[in-house]
Design a protein that fits this description.
heterodimer; A: alpha+beta; four-stranded antiparallel sheet; 4 strands; 24% strand; B: alpha+beta; five-stranded mixed sheet; two-stranded antiparallel sheet; 3 helices; elongated
Chain lengths: 133, 155
């Protein structure tokens, strides 16, 4: 076999192996993203159902009319667990925003509209992100 | 002689590339296996909590938007007592939990999480897949938590 032919064969095979690696890496990435989405979707659902339950029981309305965000923040933190950082933003009908907690690059975002005991309309936005597991 | 050296050089490079690919594949497979295990655990946790809450609850669902439906759970004390009396093994059988999974079911007070009404099963809460639902019992809020861990599933 000539030297030129060998070099071509070598390059082609190396390229082939590299392509396989890239395809497998992409497949792995897709599985990872899909796997994580299950958890995020479920957490979002669980959080939404919890906030609705709190609203049904009158607890959310009571907290919002008193603007007791720290209590609301501690409830959400308790529900999600210690491994989540949580930020809650409450917007009233006059456009005032109240915020508690910090969350950079949130993975879960939830918006919930409700009427408090004082008949004011509030929008509660929850941002959460897993710190580490 | 020169062509033999070229052949050896090309063969060495290909062997090296093959080793890199094989190690990458094995690494990816192990990660994929770990992710799939976690996904299986999460799926089971969701199924268990939905069945458990539906079993204990007499509540309805609320439609959100066009397609989403969120369930709110009202749990009666008699159902809770029934659950307590049922026992762990019978409960797992009722929920049709596969034998190779360990499950922990906890019902705790929202405003006093250290007070647990029910704590069935033994699972490491930090490593297991978990989910929760807020439920109402006699007008008081409680959290139902389910932890699932696949036996020998974690890498």
């Amino acid at each position: 076999m000539k030297r030129g032919q060998l070099q071509v064969l070598e390059s082609l095979l190396s390229l082939f192996f590299v392509l396989i690696s890239v395809v497998l890496a992409l497949k792995f990435y897709c599985i990872t993203v899909e796997g994580l989405d299950i958890e995020k979707y479920e957490l979002k659902y669980a959080l939404l159902s919890s906030i609705m339950e709190l609203d049904e029981m009158g607890i959310l309305s009571d907290l919002l009319s008193r603007l007791d965000l720290s209590e609301l923040h501690s409830i959400v933190c308790l529900l999600l667990g210690e491994e989540y950082e949580v930020r809650i933003v409450v917007l009233d009908e006059d456009g005032h925003a109240f915020s508690i907690g910090s969350c950079s690059r949130p993975e879960i975002e939830l918006a919930y509209l409700t009427i408090a005991e004082d008949s004011s309309i509030y929008e509660v936005r929850v941002f959460a992100r897993r710190i580490e597991r | 002689m020169s062509s033999e050296l070229d052949f050896i050089s090309a063969f060495s490079i290909m062997l090296l590339a093959l080793m890199v690919v094989v190690s990458t594949i094995s690494l990816q497979l192990s990660h994929t296996n770990s992710i799939l295990t976690k996904a299986r655990e999460e799926y089971l946790a969701i199924r268990i909590i939905e069945e458990l809450c539906s079993y204990m609850s007499f509540s309805s669902s609320i439609n959100v938007g066009l397609v989403h439906r969120v369930h709110l759970y009202r749990i009666s004390m008699s159902k809770l007592l029934e659950l307590k009396l049922m026992g762990y093994k019978r409960l797992l059988k009722m929920l049709d939990v596969p034998e190779n999974y360990r499950v922990k079911i906890v019902i705790e007070e929202l405003f006093n999480p250290s007070n647990r009404l029910i704590e069935l099963g033994d699972v490491d809460e930090n490593n297991a897949a978990s989910t929760f639902r807020l439920v109402s019992m006699n007008g008081e809020p409680y959290i139902v938590r389910v932890y699932v861990e696949e036996a020998d599933g974690r890498l």
